[in-house]
Design goal:
alpha+beta, five-stranded antiparallel beta sheet, three-stranded antiparallel beta sheet, 15% helix, elongated
């Protein structure tokens, strides 16, 4: 009886040890994986597809290679823009330029300056204006719409430019222009008369009056600076009478009566 109870007790202990061992062995892979850092099989993330045109923008609009210039004198200005995209391989396949005198008219069919229509081209630098003649001293607004290789359109924010007089002859488009000068004073200032120049007195002869010879008959006597007076080098003086000019030589006739 005791032997049977003892055998049953040993059998139960054996079953219990087997259960514990099996449980321990089953948990061992999980513990090993935790200690070694082995990750569970990851679920593949869905591949993100780019939005239609969310990553594309058109910026950097220029006229005559300047941003919003004033006073340009080119009758056919050149336009330019930049296309930026976060998607690799995105490219421009067409564009459309609109020009108007009011930014609210920058729409197809409403532009009063120029509607270039859709042009199949990848050009974005130095694109010439091809509309009607621009008016002088006028502000214009313009924009461009760009299409990519998938036909998706993107429109740039409006830019502007202002024309100059557009004249090279100095006459055209200068109506009403005035020279820049000082503003007129409220009370006129009396003008001071300018000093007048007076002619210097005629130089007097250094030889004195010529006297006729003591002869009873009429004769002609020629007087010259060399004969009438002994011309000697005179010292420099500011007085005209101190010098004898050679232009004073003349012929004198003295009749005797």
């Amino acid at each position: 009886m005791e032997d049977g109870a003892h055998g049953e007790h040993e059998e139960r202990g054996t079953v219990r040890r087997r259960t514990v061992l099996a449980t321990t062995l089953g948990a061992l892979p999980a513990i090993t994986a935790y200690r070694t850092g082995a990750a569970q099989p990851a679920v593949a993330a869905p591949v993100a597809t780019p939005a239609d045109s969310g990553g594309t923008s058109v910026t950097g609009l220029t006229t005559e290679h300047r941003t919003n210039p004033l006073g340009i004198d080119a009758p056919r200005p050149l336009f330019g823009w930049r296309t930026h995209s976060t998607t690799r391989g995105r490219r421009q396949t067409a564009y459309r330029i609109l020009v108007a005198t009011d930014p609210r008219r920058l729409a197809p069919g409403r532009a009063d300056g120029w509607d270039g229509g859709r042009v199949a081209s990848s050009d974005s630098v130095a694109v010439p204006y091809a509309g009607p003649a621009l008016r002088a001293a006028t502000r214009y607004h313009w924009t461009v719409t760009v299409w990519d290789e998938h036909g998706r359109a993107r429109t740039a924010p409006a830019a502007r430019f202002e024309t100059g007089l557009l004249g090279t002859d100095g006459v055209a488009n200068w109506d009403g222009a005035r020279w820049i000068g000082m503003a007129a004073a409220s009370s006129p200032t009396p003008r001071v008369p300018s000093p007048t120049r007076t002619a210097p007195p005629a130089p007097r002869s250094c030889c004195g009056p010529a006297r006729p010879p003591s002869s009873t008959s009429a004769r002609t006597w020629s007087a010259s600076p060399a004969a009438a007076c002994a011309v000697r080098p005179a010292p420099r003086s500011s007085s005209p009478s101190a010098r004898c000019s050679t232009t004073q030589a003349r012929a004198l006739t003295f009749p005797l009566g």
